[in-house]
Input
Amino acid sequence: MEIQKNREKWIETLYKLRLQNFIATFLEALGPVSILGAQLVYLSQPILSPFFSPDHSRELAKILEDPAETALFIKALRTYQPRA
Output
């Protein structure tokens, strides 16, 4: 349940930044190598810290570590509709 809430927070954030389609395409292109993307998120936390909290960055890395979660994340990015 917690990972679903984390996924939703990231989707809302990326939607606000208008990056949802770019990130979905990028993750699809990475495919099974997305676990390396998770490691990159962990390593780049100091760089990301002005934009995202360390907890927020770790949440994204957890999503990217699991291929099933990554697939759900991509699908959710493609189909997200903001609440009215």
